[in-house]
From TrEMBL:
Key words of the record: Cell membrane, Membrane, Transmembrane, Transmembrane helix
Mode of membrane association: Multi-pass membrane protein
One GO MF term attached to the UniProt entry: protein tyrosine kinase activity
GO CC terms, sorted: plasma membrane
Membrane recorded as keyword: yes
Cellular location(s): Cell membrane
Location (main, coarse): membrane
Name of the protein: GNVR domain-containing protein
Occurrences of domain Tyrosine-protein kinase G-rich (ranges): 132-187
Domain Polysaccharide chain length determinant N-terminal: 2-90
Cited InterPro entries: Bact_polysacc_biosynth/exp, GNVR, LPS_length_determ_N
Length: 220
């Protein structure tokens, strides 16, 4: 089947090609607004200092910087620990933090840790992020990982949800419906073995057409 033949085939079944993608997009739109909950992301950043740096004020050297970077990785691991999460949940009066998606970013070339919390509403996401920043400082001192964890930016309640990306889901559903419509049209054409033209007869019989009987008006 040539590209021109495909276009002609799709044009013949234009109603299906239009209706099916639109229907898929509408179903996804309804599902995304009715089923998918909005998620809000709050972020807080922390700066980690080694105990020797804290004692010597602003004086730093290569060894202190390396130690602080390693401490940042240790604190990032503490933020993902069950103890910090449970302590933060208890401080906020929650049973657990299962409704929140918590992620930690720590680069090896910096002493800054970024804590991101995704939650069902803006205020709770910000509260969890700030409380975890406080609890990790307590736990870090308790296990002697670090003596100083300073919050650079406290988490604030976001004004708009960070997800889900409903437009993306709707666009994907529309494209899936379009591909499905094309597949159905092509499959219908392949299963239709009716001879509709002289070219079909030549392809089916393997012999050339030498004559045609024109259709007479009135069927005679």
């Amino acid at each position: 089947m040539t590209l021109l033949e495909l276009f002609q085939l799709l044009k013949k079944h234009m109603q299906l090609v239009i209706v099916l993608p639109v229907a898929c997009a509408l179903v996804m739109a309804v599902a995304s607004f009715a089923v998918m909950r909005n998620t809000y992301t709050a972020q807080t950043s922390m700066y980690i200092l080694a105990s020797s740096s804290a004692a010597q004020g602003q004086t730093t050297n290569y060894n202190e910087l390396t130690a602080s970077q390693l401490l940042a990785n240790d604190v990032a691991a503490l933020l993902e620990s069950d103890r910090v999460r449970q302590d933060a949940a208890e401080a906020l009066g929650l049973e657990d933090l299962d409704d929140f998606d918590i992620s930690v970013a720590s680069e090896t070339t910096t002493r800054v840790i970024t804590l991101s919390v995704d939650g069902p509403d803006a205020e709770s996401a910000a509260s969890v992020a700030n409380e975890m920043a406080q609890q990790v400082s307590v736990v870090a001192q308790d296990v002697q990982v670090a003596d100083s964890i300073n919050v650079i930016d406290e988490a604030v309640a976001p004004d708009a949800p960070s997800g889900p990306n409903r437009l993306l889901y709707i666009a994907v559903a529309f494209m899936a419906g379009l591909f499905l419509a094309v597949a159905i049209v092509v499959l219908m054409d392949m299963l239709n073995t009716r001879v509709r033209s002289a070219e079909d007869a030549e392809e089916l019989l393997g012999i050339p057409v030498v004559g045609r009987i024109p259709a007479m008006k009135g069927g005679k």
